[in-house]
Amino acid sequence: MDSYPPADPGTSPAGLRETKKRETHRLISDHATRLFIEQGFERTTIAEIADAARVAKKTVTNYFPRKEDLALDHQEEFVRGLALTIAARAPGESALAALRRSFLTAVEERNPVAGFAGPDFSRMIADSPTLSVCLRGLHDRREDALAAALAEATAAPADDVTPRAAAAVLGGVHRVLFGRIQELTLAGRDDDEVAEVVGAEAVRAFDLLEPSLGDYARA
């Protein structure tokens, strides 16, 4: 049985339950990631993950309804990221400028959600057909969320194709850059090298969009 630090006497029962849930979530996720990297995603079973985490198999599926959720456990943060950047853009800042700034900050911070997941994790995804398909679906969902955010930001009519077209272009650049980070990581480059290369490439990629989207969705 896993032990935890003594609870603060002032902590409510509801707070203790939430803390326990977070600890269990992290415990299961950590063991799943270790097994996926050691054995491969496709070959690892839910039962093996449950045994490693010392929980029931049903507990695993309660916390992670799909096996893919165990490997990619920042899905909602990834899907909502671009849309949230649009919502939080500064006064006078265009959608393109906000997304450029946000991505370059993520590169500086070596943010895992931007693709800086390390060679073992990147290889796990690349070697798994299931996870590769799941990742493409997450990119699609992120683009849809971005289109909705752009439509709201520009008060576009429901039948206006402009937000969807802009999201396809902006999301496409992010998709390419994410793939580039993975590619360089799998080629043996360390995070600092990857950041230097991709940071410069990102500037060029976003500059290509400036003539058409430089003033679009300006706050």
In words, what does this structure look like?
Residues 22-82 form the HTH tetR-type domain. Residues 1-22 are annotated as: Disordered. This is TetR/AcrR family transcriptional regulator. Pfam families: TetR_N (PF00440). It is a single chain. Helix content is 71%, strand content 0%. The chain is an all-alpha fold. It has two domains: 13-66, Arc Repressor Mutant, subunit A (Orthogonal Bundle), CATH 1.10.10.60; 75-213, Tetracycline Repressor, domain 2, CATH 1.10.357. The protein is globular and about 55 Å long. 28% of the residues are buried. The model is unreliable at 1-5 (pLDDT under 50).
Draw up the topology in text:
Elements: H1 13-39, H2 46-53, H3 57-63, H4 67-71, H5 75-87, H6 95-108, H7 119-126, H8 129-154, H9 162-186, H10 191-213
Helix pairs in contact: 1-2, 2-3, 5-8, 6-10, 8-9, 9-10
Total helices: the number is 10
Profile the largest sheet: none
Q: Give me the secondary-structure category.
A: mainly alpha
* Strand composition percent: under 5%
Task: Tell me the number of structural domains.
Answer: 2
- Described by the principal axes of the CA atoms, the overall outline is globular
Order of helices and strands: HHHHHHHHHH
Task: Describe the structure concisely for a colleague.
With 219 residues, the chain is mainly α.
